[in-house]
Design goal:
By secondary structure, the chain is an all-alpha fold. Helix content is 52%, strand content 0%. The termini are far apart.
């Protein structure tokens, strides 16, 4: 018996296997014989941590484990505190269209943003709240204003300016 499997993961694994799909959580508990691929994923994530960027493609026949490896990669990345997002390309979710289907893909990606504490998606509001809290804290420290005081309406313009400054820096980078 596996000691570190959570009841939620166990239920997800059993229900998914009954349905013939890859479990959304707990996939690491049923991984067998994929150590070479796992090592490649871990190595790639280390490279990304060190500032590199990359794109990986899994190509294979139906049933060869592409979806399984994608779910495993998500699990490994979340455990290492990466932010993960995914969406399926379908006729209704595609990169480009004149009828809003490109927006549907973007919406699906944003809806599926995941973090370690929200592995099933819906983490974008949490990430934005954390970022805004960091901006508020930094603004208070830079201006020698206490964390309680900085939340007063009179300092709202300072906070807004720091938010815009950060967004502009991101835009300048690309």
């Amino acid at each position: 018996m596996i000691d570190n499997i959570k009841p939620k993961e166990a239920t997800s694994i059993i229900n998914s296997l009954i349905s013939g799909v890859v479990p959304k959580i707990g996939v690491q508990h049923i991984t067998v014989g994929r150590s070479e691929e796992i090592n490649a994923v871990v190595s790639a994530l280390e490279d990304v941590k060190n500032g590199h960027s990359m794109v990986k493609f899994w190509i294979g026949d139906f049933g060869s484990g592409k979806s399984f490896m994608l779910h495993l990669l998500n699990t490994v990345a979340l455990k290492q505190k990466f932010v993960v997002a995914n969406a399926d390309f379908t006729p209704d979710n595609r990169l480009y269209s004149n009828d809003g289907k490109g927006v549907a893909l973007y919406s699906a990606i944003m809806d599926n943003v995941s973090i370690q504490t929200k592995p099933e998606g819906g983490a974008l509001p949490t990430l934005l709240e954390k970022w805004i809290e960091q901006v508020i804290t930094k603004t208070g420290e830079e201006n020698n204003i206490s964390l309680v005081e900085i939340r007063n309406e009179q300092y709202l313009k300072l906070i807004q300016n720091n938010i815009m400054k950060t967004i502009n820096e991101i835009t300048d980078v690309g």
